């Protein structure tokens, strides 16, 4: 049976990304060695890193003066690496959910950290509105897409202080004005490729200001100056990012990704709003187009498990909601297809017809 992958991450990737990466795993550039076996210093691998960086810069229209690096440790390591490198006296965080909170917790190891705004009181079902950003912050940290709660800030805000963003779950799904940010980071395992590598975009002239001795591996300058080759980089995951970037480019770039994401989300949200069994969990204006969260309406709560079973039998994978929201979450990253969302919607309609 055909499977439709709605996993939140690692998540669906374009088939050709998987096939092309698999080919290189079997025989890297006809060398007779696997991509898993080559030295990262091999002459054929440097072009992989160079092309990947060049494509990310091109696709996100990154201005001069920024570096793109690849690191291990996931986005979670960035929760500490960002404050280690950027927190001088005081950092501000917008608390929009689990990941934002985790980022804020790590910053506290490095200095004063304040919560500038929060929607915790409403179980993060909307983004905080109308808050003032204190002018004395070293930076303001935001999470542009809240993977668990399904809210998304789909614009680049104006900030009087340097802006830093965790874009793990929506990078490359829309055009971004990178010049508004001093740093952007993303675990690659959603819109950029497979798990095992994190992409960090840094404004060069903001580096090296931390008032503390940084361990070598934590200092961004180490990795910027060595082009992500200070130590052994995650070779296979970086290759998967290259293939994903080629795919995004071949499919029209981030403008087209944005258009497709809006269309998929409209189809699913329209059904959530129409179908008597379901309701969305997020304020309409803050709904994510990457992670679409919904629950059973009160009077149909008993049907939650039966719907999950019904959908699973029809090939839907990964639609169970995170335990902090319950219900369902359909993650629709760049590789998600119209066929996939239409299959989910048909499933919702057919289940409604039975009840
Ligand atoms: N930030 C966001 C928005 C995420 O969705 C995730 C993981 O899903 C993380 C951070 C943590 O990423 P990692 O598992 O790469 O540490």
UniProtKB/TrEMBL annotation:
Subcellular location: Cytoplasm
Main location: cytoplasm
Cofactors named for this entry: pyridoxal 5'-phosphate
GO cellular component: cytoplasm
Binding site for L-glutamate: 41
Metabolic or biological pathway, per its Swiss-Prot or TrEMBL entry: Amino-acid biosynthesis; L-serine biosynthesis; L-serine from 3-phospho-D-glycerate: step 2/3; Cofactor biosynthesis; pyridoxine 5'-phosphate biosynthesis; pyridoxine 5'-phosphate from D-erythrose 4-phosphate: step 3/5
Gene Ontology terms: biological process: L-serine biosynthetic process; pyridoxine biosynthetic process
Family affiliation: Belongs to the class-V pyridoxal-phosphate-dependent aminotransferase family. SerC subfamily.
Function text: Catalyzes the reversible conversion of 3-phosphohydroxypyruvate to phosphoserine and of 3-hydroxy-2-oxo-4-phosphonooxybutanoate to phosphohydroxythreonine.
Oligomer and partners: Homodimer.
PANTHER family, per database record: PHOSPHOSERINE AMINOTRANSFERASE
Name listed for the protein in its UniProt record: Phosphoserine aminotransferase
């Amino acid at each position: 049976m055909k499977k439709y992958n709605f996993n939140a991450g690692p998540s669906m990737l374009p088939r050709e990304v998987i096939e092309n990466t698999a080919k290189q795993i079997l025989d890297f550039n006809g060398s007779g060695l696997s991509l898993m076996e080559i030295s990262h210093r091999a002459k054929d691998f440097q072009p992989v890193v160079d092309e990947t960086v060049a494509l990310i810069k091109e696709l996100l229209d990154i201005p001069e003066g920024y570096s793109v690096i690849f690191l291990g440790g996931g986005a979670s390591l960035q929760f500490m690496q960002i404050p280690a490198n950027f927190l001088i006296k005081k950092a501000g965080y917008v608390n929009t959910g689990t990941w934002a909170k985790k980022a804020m917790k790590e910053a506290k190891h490095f200095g004063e950290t304040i919560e500038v705004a929060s929607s915790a009181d409403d179980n993060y079902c909307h983004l905080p509105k109308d808050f003032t950003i204190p002018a004395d912050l070293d930076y303001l940290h935001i999470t542009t897409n809240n993977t668990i709660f399904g809210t998304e800030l789909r614009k680049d805000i104006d900030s009087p202080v340097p802006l830093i963003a965790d874009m793990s779950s929506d990078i490359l799904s829309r055009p971004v004005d990178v010049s508004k940010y001093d740093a952007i980071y993303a675990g690659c395992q959603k819109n950029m490729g497979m798990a095992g590598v994190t992409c960090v975009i840094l404004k060069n002239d903001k580096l090296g200001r931390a008032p503390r001795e940084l361990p070598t591996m934590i200092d961004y300058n180490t990795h910027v100056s060595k082009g992500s080759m200070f130590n052994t980089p995650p070779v296979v995951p970086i290759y998967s990012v290259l293939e994903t970037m080629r795919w995004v480019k071949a499919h029209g770039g981030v403008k087209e990704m944005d258009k497709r994401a809006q269309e998929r989300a409209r189809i699913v949200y329209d059904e959530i709003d129409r179908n008597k069994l379901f309701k969305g969990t997020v304020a309409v204006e803050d709904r994510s187009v990457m992670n679409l969260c919904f629950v059973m309406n009160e009077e149909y709560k008993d049907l939650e498990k039966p719907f999950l079973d019904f959908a699973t039998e029809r090939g839907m994978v990964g639609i169970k909601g995170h335990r902090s929201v319950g219900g369902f979450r359909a993650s629709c990253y760049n590789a998600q297809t119209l066929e996939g969302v239409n299959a989910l919607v048909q499933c919702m309609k057919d289940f409604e017809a039975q009840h």
